[in-house]
Amino acid sequence: MSILVLPGDGIGPEVTAQAVKALRSVAANGPQFEMAEAAIGDAGLHQAGDPLPEATLEAARRADAILFGAAGTYESDLLPPEKRGGHGLLRLRKALDLFANFRPVYAFPELIGASTLRREVIEGVDLVVLRELTGDIYFGTPRGVERDASGQRIGTNTMRYTEGEIRRVAHAGFRAARQRRHKLCSVDKANVLETMALWREVVTEVGRDYPDVELTHLYVDAASMHLIRRPRDFDVIVTGNIFGDILSDAAAMLTGSIGMLPSASLGEGGRGLYEPVHGSAPDIAGQDKANPLASILSAAMMLRHSLGQEEAARAVEAAVREVLAEGYRTPDIMEPGARSVGTEAMGDAVAAAIQRQR
Length: 358
Ligand code: NAI
Ligand code: MG
Known about the structure:
Elements: E1 2-8, H1 12-27, E2 34-37, H2 42-48, H3 54-62, E3 65-70, H4 74-77, H5 85-95, E4 100-106, H6 119-122, E5 126-132, E6 140-147, E7 153-158, H7 163-178, E8 183-188, H8 194-207, E9 214-219, H9 220-229, E10 236-239, H10 241-255, E11 264-266, E12 272-274, H11 293-305, H12 310-325, E13 328-329, E14 339-340, H13 343-357
Parallel strand pairs: 1-2, 1-3, 3-12, 5-10, 8-9, 8-10, 13-14
Antiparallel strand pairs: 4-5, 4-11, 6-7, 11-12
Helix pairs in contact: 1-11, 1-13, 7-8, 9-10, 11-12, 12-13
The structure holds 1,4-dihydronicotinamide adenine dinucleotide and magnesium ion (MG).
């Protein structure tokens, strides 16, 4: 089993190192992995002149699974796309056709007190945001900034989805709902955007193949409200690229911190890209403050979905629960009376707990 590790920028390398530690702890008395590392993001640009170096893409195509950290910085966000670190990730997802980004939002009982939301709202939250990753306004053309006849600048992006792109992610959503509580909520803006009217129509058509799944629809603005007001009512949420991006950061707050949210980006085959939902967090990079649990939980998803190691995946998840129960907290989830630890110490605690699980 081969894993390609792409640490990237900012806190990417810091949190990814802890996930690698967890995988090594799993491997100490279990499945063996071959791990290789490659450059992406600003790091790719500096090392090989491209945020997605050709060698990295080739290695990604050969690997069984990819563990990714974060790409981009505020500085490179301002550069043209071909030099933007974050663009390397967008291109990688697109090149591997990883269209289905599963973002489980689970409120750990141990962390209820770390959220800014009230206990009775978030207790028992267990939902999945399924974000489409390869289409939408992030990729549609025409795009760019031009000047009109009067010299005024005009920015353009295009929200675009093919029927096929909607259909395949809808199927992924219904299949996921079937494995959970049989509820799928499709989020769109069908009242204003033609692209999203098509979205709703196609999801509804696909739904006829899944009579056992209850399908509902929400407009994205209302969905953002319901997500905070009655999050327990949601099971699987399927939505487009940009709405999924925004809704899942909001959903992160149900769990206490964006540092708790893992994700899996999957295509039609078994290969997947596993990544924390958060970015490179330049404000805390290099300070041993980042929460590595999102990255470690992403590694658990990798064990489950791409490497066929369900038991190991459960051991990693149980280890995370154990360290939370023991009171280990990085600053983002710190509570009075808890044990304040840094990135490294949290990673060490999880690695040790994995040993006790197995
Ligand atoms: P961000 O997710 O990096 O940070 C948002 C806030 O959450 C910050 O205050 C940060 O300190 C905190 N945070 C994030 N991860 C954390 C963790 N593991 N533990 C504790 N606190 C954490 O989003 P932001 O600030 O909008 O973007 C920063 C850079 O990352 C930008 O250059 C952006 O383009 C890039 N980015 C990359 C992503 C990726 O590679 N998947 C996703 C989102 C942003
Ligand atoms: Mg985002």
